[in-house]
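TL;DR need structure tokens for one chain.
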Amino acid sequence: MPLSSAGLVSQIVKMSEAGVLSGATTEFISVQLLINMSDDNVTWTDWQKWHPGQYKARFFKMRLIATCTDPTENTAIQIRSFTWTVDMPDIIDIGTNVALPATGLAISFVKKYKTVPNVQITILNASQHDDVVFLTLPFVNSSGAGGFSVRVLNAGVGVARTINWLAKGY
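>> reply
TL;DR here they are.
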């Protein structure tokens, strides 16, 4: 769900129409969304007004500030729930025409990931009964580097093949 100031205001209008705001008019209510970011979860930026767009950090905090400026109302604003979603861009790493010896091969990702990516293997010169086996499952360490080890077996025996691989994650 993308957050936008228009979306927040329209939610307030809908709540007032339903009588949730106990008669307070929305012209005197404002909601401000603030964001705070960090790359190490220790040093944080100052709170700043959130605007739709892209933000680059490893850790985020969000805060809502709702105020009522109606001079005739002593209204407390209660926000019962607030959710937000982060959509990280996909990272795609590929290997093409990789010669795989019968004993298998350790492959390192060129790109760094935050989580373990989905890895797909295609055998280019496959024979009947070929099976791809991960000797080491795809992994990512704390610095974002990672990889996997793969081998092709034919009827249980290691065989040399050529593969393409694709890793997709974030």
